[in-house]
Amino acid sequence: MSHSGTSPRLGRDAALAARAVRPGVLSTITRYYSLTKPGVLYGNVLTTFAGYFLASAAFGFDWRVFVGVVVGSTLVIASACVLNNVLDRDIDTLMQRTSTRATVTGAIGKTPATIFSVVLGVLGVALLIATTNWLVVATGVGGFIVYVWFYGALSKRMSVHGTLVGSISGAAPILGGYLAASGRFDMAALAVFLMVFFWQEPEFYAIAIYRREEYARAGVPVISVVRGTRRTTWEILVYTVLYVASSMLLPAFGFVGWTYTVVTGLLGLAWIALAVVGLRTSDVVAWSHKMFRASMVIILALCVMVSVGPFLP
User: Misc remark for this entry (predicted)?
Assistant: First the structure.
């Protein structure tokens, strides 16, 4: 019968068609995925983990709530990042590190990117509502509004204090994770919020130093552009000290033991020592790269110790 004679050819044709379509589909998925700023996204999700595990030591672990707050927060943060890409197209065009974003090159238009953001946001908030509590929902929605509007659309473009505003949203995920397990705002909730809030200043100010020319060209009034690198290095030191001080609130109020205190304290002192080096270095740009890399080690170690600290001596 003709069916047996033509099926191999049809199979080959189908396979060739699939191979022709697949690269286009994968590249489209990759472009949309890139709009979520994966580096920012997963860093924030890591702090959500830490906040939840810290609170779960005292309030119990619930898989449904844990998955809900992690996935829901991830979707809300991704939504905010996508919308930020849409709003920042004019700035991103002028900066080397952002000039290849899909919203800048035109690979993804403003309308489909906005729709993508809305879908992510609605799904994320719906999941938080279904699985967590009103404090978590308020934290997630508040963080979204602060990041997209108060930071991205307003203060980032208008004030040297834009980073402080953005740091509020950056500290929201760890707070949301804690509130998901605890259901209440207490001293530990304040401590984890302050730690991540203060950590972001040295981290971003270091970027502001080695990306100073790009920010100046884009007209973004970051501290290194408005007040110079010398003032920036001093503020990096101040905020590094504030970070270390806030990281000691958890042991001070009995939420973690001496293991957390020793590990976090020693790393914090090393970070302060590196910040002091910036005041007398002859190559502030090279130093700022080291400061940024150190900030990545600090936040990773902090998340680990916040997660396991309550369970260790």
Answer: Carbon 2 of the heme B porphyrin ring is defined according to the Fischer nomenclature.
- Is the Cβ–Cβ distance between 221 and 160 less than 8 Å? yes
- Distance between CA atoms of 172 and 48, rounded to whole angstroms? 9
pTM > 0.85: yes or no:
yes
Residues near 98 by Cβ (< 8 Å), separated by ≥ 6? 88, 91, 92, 104
> To which residue do tokens 């402080």 refer?
164
Residues in the chain: 313
User: Tokens 């906040």, residue?
Assistant: 51
Q: How many C-beta atoms surround the C-beta of residue 81 within 10 A?
A: 23
Please state which of the four CATH numbers 1.10.760.10, 1.10.8.280, 1.10.357.140, 3.30.565.10 is assigned to the domain occupying 35-182: 1.10.357.140
Q: Which amino acid is at 225?
A: V
CATH fold label, 186-313: Four Helix Bundle (Hemerythrin (Met), subunit A) (1.20.120)
Q: Which of 214, 236, 235, 238 is nearest to 225 (CA)?
A: 214
Q: Of the candidates 172, 183, 182, which has an alpha carbon nearest to the alpha carbon of residue 55? A: 182
Residue 222: alpha-carbon gap to chain centroid: 19
Structure confidence by residue, pLDDT tens digits, 244-295? 999 999 999 999 999 999 999 999 999 999 999 999 999 999 999 999 999 9
Distance CA 219, CA 80 (A): 22
